[in-house]
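Q: Hi! New to this. If I give you a protein sequence and the SMILES for calcium ion, can you show me the bound structure?
A: Yes, paste them in.
Q: Okay, here:
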Amino acid sequence: MLLSNSCKVRVVVAQAFVRVFAAFAMFLFGGSAALAQGVPASTQSTKPTSSPTGTAASTTTRRPNILFIMSDDHGKQAISCYGATAAPGLVSTPGIDRIAREGMRFDRASVTNAICGPSRAVMLTGKHSHLNGFATNDQKFDGTQQTFPKVLQAAGYRTEVIGKWHLESDPTGFDHWDVLVGQGDYWNPTFIVDGTRTKRDGHATDIIHANALERLRALAPAAKDGKPFAMLVHHKAPHRNWMPTARHLNLFKDDEIPLPATFFDRYEGRSRASSMQTMQVDRDLAWEYDLKVTARELFPDRKLDGLDSWMQREIERIPGEIQRAIVEAYRDENRKLIERYSRMKPKSLAEWRFQRYAKDYLRTAQGVDDSVGGILEELDRLGLADNTIVVYTSDQGWFLGEHGWFDKRWMYEESFRMPLVVRWPGQIPAASTSDALVQNLDFAPTFLAAAGVSVPADMQGKSMLPLLAAGGATDKPFRDAVYYRFEESKGSHTVPRHEGVATDRWKLIRFLDLIDPATGERTLELYDLAADPDELRSLAGDPKHAETLRAMTQKLEAIRAQYQVDVPRAGNSTSAPATP
Ligand SMILES: [Ca+2]
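A: Thanks. Here is the predicted structure of the protein with calcium ion bound:
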């Protein structure tokens, strides 16, 4: 496990550092000089230079391809290079692990807003939600604004997006786009291909994977001839409602997924915010839509609607053979549940629901890992691996039963942190790790810097390249604090609006619409992540931590000013109310 291998990592990093730094400096300054002189980056040499270190330096004069693989709602606890803490020894993700083994694993990467569309808008623009104008999923992304694919396209890159988009407006800045309609269906989904709707048979993960391979093959000759590509392969999985591919339907069948230590959380020791949610595994998952149990068999006398009459409608969309496999996979477990349902105590019912939920989530995520592994093999076959930056991440993390929850939205650790592994052979030391406070805000500037393109001054993120080149071992911290803001309190799961600031040890959360009766001010929660990593005890009202609370409140105000949170913007309904 990489997590227990830090000594080895340090040795590898030390050995690689000098060589990589020299090569990287040549790349950076060479590219910048060409741009400063107005020479289009596309005219730079694509021929390998001779070098005693061989391939490492040969890539320094070629602009790299960028392959940005992202999934939806994939938590670190379900990935084995992060220890697969949700089910150690059971979950194995060799595809994602390979990127970490051959590149860098970030352990404290976070999102600025833990929900699907807004996270994607931040990633594309390098700007917080209040500036890119897409703060909640019911908004529409303004596709006329600056994004990193547009800047790369103007610099001569071929740009493509394959898979989930979920920004309401059509993609802009892409030479080719092949995206799911909205959230997309798992089975037989409809895509929009360069503006034309196309229904395809099969499972969304496998279709997106096959399309990605096809596009890589198509782009490989030009890429090797000096026309690099930036391709976004964005999976729908493992988003709710967790439908695995047919080959993963019976994975973990005879296993027991351990209950998270906080599964029976009673939400004491914190503000009332966490008890306001409607995202509990034991209460809020729908029997049919989420848990694949035919609700009319559980409740023969109850009139069913919505998510609990979903199965019949959905199953009809699925091809016959697979439909039978799905029914078969769940049949025996469901039959036993239905037989004993009326006699089950709430605790054992909650545990049953957790097992079904967690297994289907992990099964669905397994398809994504298959895809990552397959894409890496295809890069090898096509001879593209050495000159392609490969990123794997998720649009945010996920609650896999922690605090008794499913879903995301909160600034709490499980959804706030996202997995992030990056490979760039010869440029990033293999098997390196970083605790730096990077965010999804940083993707856009990182990709632009890697392409040798100037990062526009109005992007708020920072290039991660120096950190990557140094194997995480930089003299100064990447940044000392990050800002977070969630706006969608009117959406599903009734999570109250909040913002916050986090450092490497402390996290302050401010609930924007909840007044604390004790103070008459907005409700605050303060966590010591070192002493209380599960965030079970807020220290906001503890006199012993008054000084930390004051310092973190100041930090929150400072970071709000830094990111221009209170600057009024025309037509932007999401700008923050003034701070009391
Ligand atoms: Ca998501």
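A: Residues 72-73, 116, 395-396 surround calcium ion (CB under 6 Å). Let me know if you'd like me to explain how to read the tokens.
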